[in-house]
Amino acid sequence: MNNLHDWPEPIIRVQSLSESDLPIIPDRYIKPLTDRPCLNSEVDNDSNIPIIDLTGLSEHEDNLPASTLDQISIACREWGFFQVINHGVSPELMDRAREVWRGFFHSPMEIKQVYANSPKTYEGYGSRLGIEKGAILDWSDYYYLHYLPLTLKDYKKWPASPDSCREVIDEYGKELVKLSGRIMKVLSINLGLKEDQLQNAFGGDNIGACLRVNFYPKCPQPDLALGLSSHSDPGGLTLLLPDHEVPGLQVRRNGKWITVKPARHAFIINIGDQVQTDKVDKHDDFKVMIYEDKVLSNANYKSVEHRVIVNSGMERISLAFFYNPKSDIPIKPVEELVSEEKPALYSPMTFDEYRLFIRLKGPKGKSQVDSLKSPR
């Protein structure tokens, strides 16, 4: 399990395949029939995840109206996803962040290859997830880097080109750490807890934060491939800056895939596997359950399956910022939620251990989470 120093097969950059103008995609990228995005009967094109206005929530102000708190609570229970506008992050910074990364992916290959990654950490320029030999691959390239803790933050592993790239990434990361902390407070308040309880469960100030920039090149057969296979996020919160001009994210709800319609300068926020809640009494009083990397079957706040489709006419880029617990803490359920009648469903596992587990297989819906259930 620790032998993750190299990929099982030579790495092929998907962007290079796309730019070669091939008329059909290689077999390695063709998904099984059950996973292809062409089943129209399983797609809901009319719905959209909630869009919530965060006016009143800022670094210096905590004055969200009760109606907004309710909207966030409902979105977490019913969707696991929501979009936020008026969130306090500069629209200009959001645009700069997206465009410097677009500049990186359109740099010459010899510049990008300097940052080629390995499965040991994923850090750097990559083109596949998981190390299963012969696996069906996703139609995407990416760049992964650490922002927190500071012991993992290494500017030398961040792209030096375009010229402003490192500066923009740093500024963007600072703003998203702040926004994530404010969202964590809202979730705590909504769950009837002290506003810092969720944050403290994640390690207080010693949290982890990382960025994965996804690049989805044009695909000549988008009905056969996926940009990113179905999965749920293993961390705490994900703040996604989408490409508002090219929809691609799909969320699974009630057995159907919903293509998210991004609002301009909005972040798409989703609950990760770390954040779980359980209804504990007849008054529908919700409390929080933090349980390392696993979704409880009776959870009301769920990490939700999602995937990314690709486009034949336009490339797409998105920035996924992950706000995670301290990597070496074995997180357990809140004691008041565990009893003889309701035992813990999973054994404790640190975030580092679970990330290694996921790394072996790559994204596979929620089957990997389910496989870790304790025998009962």
UniProtKB/TrEMBL annotation:
Cofactor dependency:
Fe(2+); L-ascorbate
The UniProt similarity line reads: Belongs to the iron/ascorbate-dependent oxidoreductase family.
The GO biological-process annotations, alphabetized, read as: defense response; negative regulation of defense response to insect; regulation of defense response to fungus; regulation of jasmonic acid mediated signaling pathway
The chemistry this enzyme catalyses reads: jasmonate + 2-oxoglutarate + O2 = (1R,2R)-12-hydroxyjasmonate + succinate + CO2
Domain of life the protein comes from: Eukaryota
GO MF annotations, alphabetized: dioxygenase activity; jasmonic acid hydrolase; metal ion binding
Q: Which InterPro entries does this one have?
A: DIOX_N, IPNS-like_FE2OG_OXY, IPNS-like_sf, Oxoglu/Fe-dep_dioxygenase_dom, Plant_2OG-oxidoreductases
Protein name from the UniProt record: Isopenicillin N synthase
Q: Does the keyword Magnesium apply?
A: no
Q: Which UniProt keywords apply?
A: Dioxygenase, Iron, Jasmonic acid signaling pathway, Metal-binding, Oxidoreductase, Plant defense
Q: Where is the Fe2OG dioxygenase domain?
A: 206-325
Q: Does the keyword Metal-binding apply?
A: yes
